[in-house]
């Protein structure tokens, strides 16, 4: 049974900080991460071990909660006591809030090496057992069914459970999220699940048992992985008020895939060889590819290109970079030599990858 401090999972969260405020918050968070692991090394680990071994892990909950909240008040944490030869596990998680994924990953990156007594994680594993408790009511996993709406690289899920009856406000939605996390694990849910809905009414014939969902999400993952095991790319087609649009996107388009890249850099590149539909012609395509390769090379691992949209005589390149590096300025400088029009570069702090969610299908 997990012991920890968790807050109701937020269904959406939007941050609109200036770059200075983001940087200040990042520095404050990093100092809190250092303070946490100093406390752990100087006695916290021993007290936590003794508390769990005695069966009274709640003794250290207030102390750890205070330290985790100093990293970010929105983070959640939990102990999973040792069992079946596995060590105790300490997890600090973003709990489904994409903007907090970077803070949780930085906490984990500073953790000591796992040993026979302790392991560390920033994602909840699937739980052992057959039920979870929410608002003092038992939600059996075998009573839950799901309706899965599969897209190219995500699954929208409607969760049905008779235990949702009587839950008020957002509680049914929160319970649905927690059920998915418990059965599938947080990584699968954050990576491949899009919209989550809750329903207490009996589902139709297209529903499957909740226990089938991990297999479905695993198959979706395989479908979006190339032969080398790297993320695949999808080609999308659409129509806009400015004409046809073609997008090429790396999947999955979620912050969990690269939480250290928390700054969005939009590079808008005009091209002169424009086909009738507004898409680039054969004279402009080689130059556009060379420019994209050049920009990626300049990043040297401090960011990546996750997508490109071509429409109405311009290609919009979506980059995510590490805000603690000068990567955004490197991109700006590298794009100056383009000879088919003026390139514009727009920089936005976006740890939740909200700027590309319209391309997640």
TrEMBL record:
Q: Which domain of life is it from?
A: Bacteria
Q: Which Pfam families match?
A: DUF695
Where in this chain does the record put each DUF695 domain? 258-354
**InterPro entries recorded:** DUF695 (IPR016097)
Protein name per its UniProtKB record: DUF695 domain-containing protein
Q: Which organism is it from?
A: Dietzia aurantiaca
């Amino acid at each position: 049974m997990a012991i920890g401090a968790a807050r109701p999972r937020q269904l959406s969260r939007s941050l609109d900080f200036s770059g200075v405020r983001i940087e200040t918050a990042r520095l404050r968070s990093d100092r809190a991460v250092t303070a946490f692991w100093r406390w752990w090394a100087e006695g916290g680990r021993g007290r936590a071990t003794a508390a769990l071994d005695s069966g009274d892990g709640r003794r250290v909950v207030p102390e750890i909660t205070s330290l985790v909240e100093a990293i970010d008040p929105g983070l959640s944490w939990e102990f999973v006591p040792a069992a079946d030869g596995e060590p105790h596990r300490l997890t600090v998680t973003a709990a489904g809030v994409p903007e907090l994924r970077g803070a949780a990953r930085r906490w984990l990156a500073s953790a000591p090496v796992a040993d026979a007594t302790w392991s560390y994680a920033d994602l909840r594993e699937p739980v052992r057992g057959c039920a979870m408790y929410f608002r003092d009511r038992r939600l059996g996993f075998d009573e839950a069914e799901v309706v899965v709406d599969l897209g190219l690289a995500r699954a929208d899920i409607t969760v049905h459970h008779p235990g949702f009856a009587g839950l008020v406000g957002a509680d049914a939605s929160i319970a649905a999220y927690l059920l998915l996390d418990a059965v599938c694990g947080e990584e699968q849910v954050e990576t491949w699940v899009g919209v989550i809905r809750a329903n207490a009414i009996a589902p139709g014939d297209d529903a499957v048992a909740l226990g089938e969902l991990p297999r479905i999400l695993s198959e979706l993952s395989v479908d979006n992985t190339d032969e080398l095991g790297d993320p695949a790319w999808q080609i999308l087609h659409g129509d806009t008020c400015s004409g046809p649009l073609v997008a090429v996107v790396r999947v999955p388009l979620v912050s969990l895939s690269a939480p250290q890249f928390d700054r969005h850099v939009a590079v808008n590149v005009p091209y002169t060889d424009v086909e009738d539909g507004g898409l680039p012609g054969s004279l402009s395509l080689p130059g556009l590819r060379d420019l994209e390769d050049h920009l990626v090379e300049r990043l040297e691992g401090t960011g990546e290109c996750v997508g490109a949209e071509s429409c109405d005589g311009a290609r919009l390149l979506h980059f995510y970079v590490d805000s603690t590096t000068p990567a955004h300025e490197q991109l700006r400088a590298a794009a100056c030599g383009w000879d088919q029009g003026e390139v514009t570069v727009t920089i936005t702090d976006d740890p939740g990858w909200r700027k590309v969610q319209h391309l997640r299908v």
